[in-house]
Write a structure and sequence with these properties.
It is found in: Cytoplasm, Cytosol. It comes from Bos indicus x Bos taurus. InterPro entries: IspD/TarI, ISPD_C, ISPD_synthase_CS, Nucleotide-diphossugar_trans. The chain has 419 residues and is α/β, with parallel strands linked by helices. It folds into 2 domains: 256 residues, Spore Coat Polysaccharide Biosynthesis Protein SpsA, Chain A (Alpha-Beta Complex), CATH 3.90.550; 136 residues, Flavodoxin domain (Rossmann fold, 3-Layer(aba) Sandwich). Helices cover 35% and strands 23% of the residues. It is built from 13 helices and 17 strands. It is elongated. Bound molecules: cytidine-5'-triphosphate (CTP) and the ligand O=P(O)(O)OC[C@@H](O)[C@@H](O)[C@@H](O)CO. The ligand O=P(O)(O)OC[C@@H](O)[C@@H](O)[C@@H](O)CO binds next to strand 11.
Length: 419
């Protein structure tokens, strides 16, 4: 579906071209029932989001625009989309990308099964990209399929660490004040240089804040502002809150944001983002035992030890494995006591694959085999466990990192361990 440029109004560059890729409506998660959720019997305030993603990432210093740079083999923008998709009361997510990156963006949406996404063409500046995203939501556009929201969130596509709580804060504040934005304390002091590059004056740092994202606006407030916007502001402006003040005379409510709201701008930010993501997905481990009895003995011994290092440790003998996978655990220790077959591990791999869990992040599975070296010669055991290499090659294709661990115990110690 194409959206032509509005009749005579708006900037010179091509108007937004909406290529609806609206996925199936994501099931509203019960946990997100909120004043913006699908609560039965009350009119939910419609909220949409516009993600400017049409930049070239010059400061990153690599050929690929930073929003498409990989983190753990997945494009940065996919993490931001996932963060917004987790919020069930955001009904539409409009992403502004350049025409040349449109196919790349479509591929990301399909590969990572992103939902509620619509694409518009980016502009030559960030403000123009945002304006094109807003036009896709305005009802004054011909053939527009998206309904106008009451509140619109604007969030840079290169800010992947955005949580539901700050989104709720800025949207609630925007409903009350017309506009709202996340802010953070300044790290460096702001100074004003003179024409000859000497210090003219410095600002009292404590009196100022850094403007971050997300921001939220009553749709009409920000859309009217962009429609009145001068070409100079569209070309050189960097602050949507300023446009709301200058053109719609709305003073945005400022909301203290968390330290994670920073924007990926330089290469070091990409490394920082990767280590934060690794840290987050490695804090949850599930120990899968092959019997209920082992769960209560070996499993809980392991749980006590792991809890000294990790935030979330879950032990199961399989009955609630499906739920654990749904809760997005990405690390599994599959313990096979007294057996060297892989039935348990294979069952886990199948469940992980069926759940599409490894689409978004790599899943780590360690298959541990406690074996009595007196009953079976090492060579035969090693042959069995070496099979895991074949499993691992196949699993890697599905973003599942499988490894095997063979632990030999004389029979009596195993008995002691289990009782
Ligand atoms: N014409 C533009 C320029 C920027 N952006 C988006 O605005 C966000 C924040 O802008 P910035 O960090 O400046 O991104 P770039 O312009 O790509 O970076 P650089 O200035 O280093 O080139 C990014 O998601 C970027 O893709 C956009 O949608 N359209
Ligand atoms: O200026 P850039 O294009 O690097 O990034 C845009 C930022 O200025 C902007 O995201 C925040 O300051 C909030 O407006």
């Amino acid at each position: 579906m194409e959206l032509g440029p509005p009749g005579g109004s708006g900037p010179a560059e091509p108007g937004p071209r909406l290529r609806g890729l609206r996925g199936a409506d994501a099931a509203a998660s019960a946990s997100s029932l909120s004043r913006f959720g699908a609560e039965a019997g009350c009119r939910a305030s419609a909220v949409a989001a516009v993600l400017p993603a049409g930049g070239s990432g010059e400061r990153m210093g690599v050929p690929t625009p930073k929003q498409f740079c990989p983190i753990l083999e997945r494009p940065l923008i996919s993490y931001t989309l996932q963060a917004l998709e987790r919020v069930s009361w955001i009904k539409d997510i409009i992403v502004a990308v350049t025409r040349e990156n449109m196919e790349t963006m479509k591929g990301i949406i399909q590969r990572y099964q992103h939902k509620r996404i619509s694409l518009v063409e980016a502009g030559v500046t960030r403000h123009r990209s945002i304006f094109n995203g807003l036009k896709a939501l305005a009802e004054d556009q011909p053939n527009c399929r998206l309904s106008k929201p009451e509140v619109v969130i604007i969030h840079d596509a290169v800010r992947p660490f955005v949580e539901e709580d700050v989104l709720l804060k800025v949207v609630t504040a925007a409903q009350e004040h017309g506009a709202s934005g996340a802010i953070r304390p300044l790290v460096s002091t702001v100074i004003s240089p003179s024409a000859d590059s000497c210090l003219d004056h410095s600002l009292e740092r404590a009196r100022y804040r850094a403007s971050e994202m997300p921001q939220a606006f009553l749709f009409d407030v920000i859309y009217d502002a962009y429609q009145q916007c001068s070409d100079y502001d569209l070309e050189f402006g960097t602050e949507c809150l300023h446009l709301a003040l200058k053109y719609s005379h709305i003073k945005a409510k400022l909301v203290e944001g968390s330290p994670d709201l920073w924007k990926v701008t330089y290469k070091r930010d990409l490394y920082a983002a990767e280590s934060i993501i690794k840290e987050r997905i490695s804090q949850k481990v599930c120990v899968v035992m092959d019997t209920k009895e082992d769960e209560e003995h070996v499993g809980h011994c392991l749980e006590e030890m792991l809890k000294t290092e990790l935030n979330h440790v879950k032990v199961t003998s399989g009955q609630d494995l499906q739920q654990i996978i749904l809760e997005q655990c990405y690390n599994f220790v599959c313990v096979n006591v007294m057996t060297s077959d892989f039935e348990e591990t294979q069952r886990l791999l199948n469940m992980v694959e069926e759940s599409n869990l490894s689409i978004l992040y790599p899943v780590v599975v360690i298959s541990v085999h406690f074996l009595d070296y007196e009953s079976v010669p090492l060579g035969q055991k090693m042959e069995k466990v070496m099979q895991i290499r074949e499993f691992a090659k196949e699993a890697k294709k599905r973003n599942i990192l499988l490894s095997g661990l063979l632990i030999y115990f004389p029979q009596e110690i195993q008995r002691d361990l289990l009782h």
